[in-house]
């Protein structure tokens, strides 16, 4: 099975909150990958050697020529009433269509699949857990990694 039961996902509470509230149509488009599929995505697209972003080394693609500029501060936007991601993040991935499939990887066992449109509208819910998760689009080179210090890195995958 490619997907796990969303209600059994230990981070599901962040997506079921009233503030910020995710519309039910969007919530049905947020899918948690099964551990097996999550591990495959992680291994193929993120790291073959490390199971969590805290363990990345200079040998991981996220650290090798992946930085595409200065870090961007995302936390001020998250704390604001505005629903928008930071402008620098939007510019970095400005050509992604709303239907682009994206993966949001918390660690090797926890990967969420949704569309760019759903993520963009509901990004604040995804970032209740901000210890290095990575956002990237399927068949896209751009990626973003978010950190608990309120910064994110704009990345290019090889």
Give a description of the structure:
By secondary structure, the protein is of the alpha+beta class. It contains five helices and seven strands, in the order αβαβααββαβββ. It has helices spanning 24-27, 35-46, 75-79, 87-92, 116-126; strands spanning 31-32, 72-73, 101-107, 110-115, 134-137, 142-146, 151-156. Strands 1-4-3-5-6-7-2 form a seven-stranded antiparallel beta sheet, sandwiched between helices. The radius of gyration is 15 Å and the shape is globular.
Secondary-structure blueprint of this entry?
Blueprint: H1 24-27, E1 31-32, H2 35-46, E2 72-73, H3 75-79, H4 87-92, E3 101-107, E4 110-115, H5 116-126, E5 134-137, E6 142-146, E7 151-156
Antiparallel strand pairs: 1-4, 2-7, 3-4, 3-5, 5-6, 6-7
Largest sheet strand order: 1-4-3-5-6-7-2
Low-confidence stretches: none
Order of helices and strands: HEHEHHEEHEEE
Could you describe the largest sheet, including whether it forms a barrel?
A: 7 strands, antiparallel
Task: Indicate the radius of gyration in whole angstroms.
Answer: 15 Å
Helical percent range?
Answer: 10-25%
Give the tags:
20% strand; 7-stranded antiparallel β-sheet; alpha+beta; 158 residues
Structure described in brief:
This protein has 158 residues and is an alpha+beta fold.
């Amino acid at each position: 099975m490619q997907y796990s039961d969303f209600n059994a996902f230990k981070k599901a509470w962040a997506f079921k909150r009233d503030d910020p509230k995710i519309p039910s149509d969007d919530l049905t488009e947020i899918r948690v990958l099964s551990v097996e599929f999550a591990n495959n995505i992680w291994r193929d697209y993120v790291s073959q050697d490390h199971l969590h972003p805290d363990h990345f080394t200079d040998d991981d693609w996220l650290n090798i020529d992946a930085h595409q500029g200065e870090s961007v501060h995302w936390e001020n936007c998250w704390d604001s009433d505005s629903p928008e991601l930071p402008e620098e993040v939007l510019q970095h991935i400005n050509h992604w269509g709303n239907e682009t499939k994206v993966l949001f990887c918390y660690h090797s066992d926890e990967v969420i699949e949704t569309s760019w449109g759903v993520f963009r509208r509901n990004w604040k819910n995804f970032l209740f857990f901000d210890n290095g998760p990575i956002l990237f689009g399927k068949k896209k080179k751009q990626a973003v990694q978010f950190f608990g210090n309120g910064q994110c890195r704009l990345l290019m995958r090889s």
